[in-house]
Every structure is written in structure tokens, then in C-alpha cells.
């Protein structure tokens, strides 16, 4: 039986760092990974099974899937039927100012508390924005639709206040996270990172895994993959990307990249170049 896994990416020409994924999956399974962006998806057909935030979820047609930046998840088709879905990726730099404009007082590092949502209005805004990106309709339309999406999120989650435990973890880990991003291309040790959080190495490791669902090393690899993806979209030389993003060789990058994006880095770059 022939399996048909399709992944079509489109970047908005008008909204910086906003991207659409249209996917059809038969037998492909996403490895654990995380994105730098907020991810808003709608299941169109089949059933989308995934693990995130310490729980297993099943998304049926019409359901909304949401991942916060850095939120680790996997995913696969939950039935023998093909899974189809659309996912819009929105960088915090785009979404957070609109959340603030919509009434969220503290929009930096804003967290949406649900991974699986039933909301017809939010679903409509996600699909409308996806269609506008696909058709590359004018900037004003895309900005208005993005604001309406943000406004609906603010309406549902604007009063969210992290509990004491989350606040405590964030205080200790944000410096460590920023240190990782500032030193992404250097060889940093667990000792180096844990010192930024003023925690013992193993206490830090336990808290980091509890917060992000992966180890600091896996987090670094994920950040490097995100950096490689951006360079691929910009048309950079593949051989340069391999070493500029901290991978030992192209095979190493391929092994890390394909389980997340469903294609090799070269195929991903060709997709954006139209070749």
C-alpha cells in the first residue's frame, strides 16, 4: 500500500515570521520537538494524536490544537485514515503586541493553558488566516485576521495568571534559557547553564525537564534546527548551514530535521525556492 505524506509550507509575504503548514499524513510520526512560534492548528480530517504538557490528546475534525513557544510535543495519525490539518505558526514578536492591544496586560511569554480547544470562532480566524497566507492576499486583511485571532485568544485566556510553581520555575529558568540562546553555537556544559539559574546541576536538570519536557541538550538541538530552518528559507548554502548551525555534517542535520518537518533540509529548501 502506498503511503502519502504531504507537507506544504507557505510563508506570509506581509506578516514577518508567520508561516502556514498544510499537511496530510498516513504513516508519518513527528518526533518530540518544539517551535519558537505559537502554533495554531485545525484538524480537517482523520484524527490527530499527540502528547504534550504531560497528557495524551486526540484531536478530531474541527478541533483546535495549540502549542506555546518551546512547548514540546509529538504527533501522528490516530486512525487508518489519512490525517489532514492546517497549522499557522506565529512568532511571539507578531502575536504578543496584538495580545497586548487586545487587553492582555502582560503579553511577554504569554501562555495558552490548553493544547486542545473547542471554539468555533477561534477556528474560523485560524482557517481564515491560513487561507489568506495561501492566497497571499493583502497585508491589511492578514493583519486584521491576525488581530481577531489574538483578540479571541485574549478573550479566552487574558485573565490567566500562572500559579506559584510556574512563576518560581520561570524565575529560575528564564536566565538559563536566554543563556542557551546567546551561546547556541558554542559548546556549553550543563554546569555552565545551571549556574545561570543558580541551581545545582542535577536540580536544574530535573526542573528543566519538568518545565520543557526535554533535556537541555535536546533543547539546544531543537534551537539549532529552528535556526537551520530559517537559513534554509533564506536560501543559504546547505553546506554552510550545517556548520553554522552546529551540526557535525549533513547526515547529522538530516537525522534531526526530517522527523520534525517530514522532509530533508534540501527538500525543504527546494520547496521554498520553487525548484
From TrEMBL:
Residues 174-271 form the HTH araC/xylS-type domain. GO terms for molecular function: DNA-binding transcription factor activity; sequence-specific DNA binding. SMART domains: HTH_ARAC (SM00342). Pfam families: AraC_binding, HTH_18. Transmembrane segments: none annotated. Keywords: DNA-binding, Transcription, Transcription regulation. It comes from the Bacteria. PROSITE patterns: HTH_ARAC_FAMILY_2 (PS01124). This is AraC family transcriptional regulator.
Amino acid at each position: 500500500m502506498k503511503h502519502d505524506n504531504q507537507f506544504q509550507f507557505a510563508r506570509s509575504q506581509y506578516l514577518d515570521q508567520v508561516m502556514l503548514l498544510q499537511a496530510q499524513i498516513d504513516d508519518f510520526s513527528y518526533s518530540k520537538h518544539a517551535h519558537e512560534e505559537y502554533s495554531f492548528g485545525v484538524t480537517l480530517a482523520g484524527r490527530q494524536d499527540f502528547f504534550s504538557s504531560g497528557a495524551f490528546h486526540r484531536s478530531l475534525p474541527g478541533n483546535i490544537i495549540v502549542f506555546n513557544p518551546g512547548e514540546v510535543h509529538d504527533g501522528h495519525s490516530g486512525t487508518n485514515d489519512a490525517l489532514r490539518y492546517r497549522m499557522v505558526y506565529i512568532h511571539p514578536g507578531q502575536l504578543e503586541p496584538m495580545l497586548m492591544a487586545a487587553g492582555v496586560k502582560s503579553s511577554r511569554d504569554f501562555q495558552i493553558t490548553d493544547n486542545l480547544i473547542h471554539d468555533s470562532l477561534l477556528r474560523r480566524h485560524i482557517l481564515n488566516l491560513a487561507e489568506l497566507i495561501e492566497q497571499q492576499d493583502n497585508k491589511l486583511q492578514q493583519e486584521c485576521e491576525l488581530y481577531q485571532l489574538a483578540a479571541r485568544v485574549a478573550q479566552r485566556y487574558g485573565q490567566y495568571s500562572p500559579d506559584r510553581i510556574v512563576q518560581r520555575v520561570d524565575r529560575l529558568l528564564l536566565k538559563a534559557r536566554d543563556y542557551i540562546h546567546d551561546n547556541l553555537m558554542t559548546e556549553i556544559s550543563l554546569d555552565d547553564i545551571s549556574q545561570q539559574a543558580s541551581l545545582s546541576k542535577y536540580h536544574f536538570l530535573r526542573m528543566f525537564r519538568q518545565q520543557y519536557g526535554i533535556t537541555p541538550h535536546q533543547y539546544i538541538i531543537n534551537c539549532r534546527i529552528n535556526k537551520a530552518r530559517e537559513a534554509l528559507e533564506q536560501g543559504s548554502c546547505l553546506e554552510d548551514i550545517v556548520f553554522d548551525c552546529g551540526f557535525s555534517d549533513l547526515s547529522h542535520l538530516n537525522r534531526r530535521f526530517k522527523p520534525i518537518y517530514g522532509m530533508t533540509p534540501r527538500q525543504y529548501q527546494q520547496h521554498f525556492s520553487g525548484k
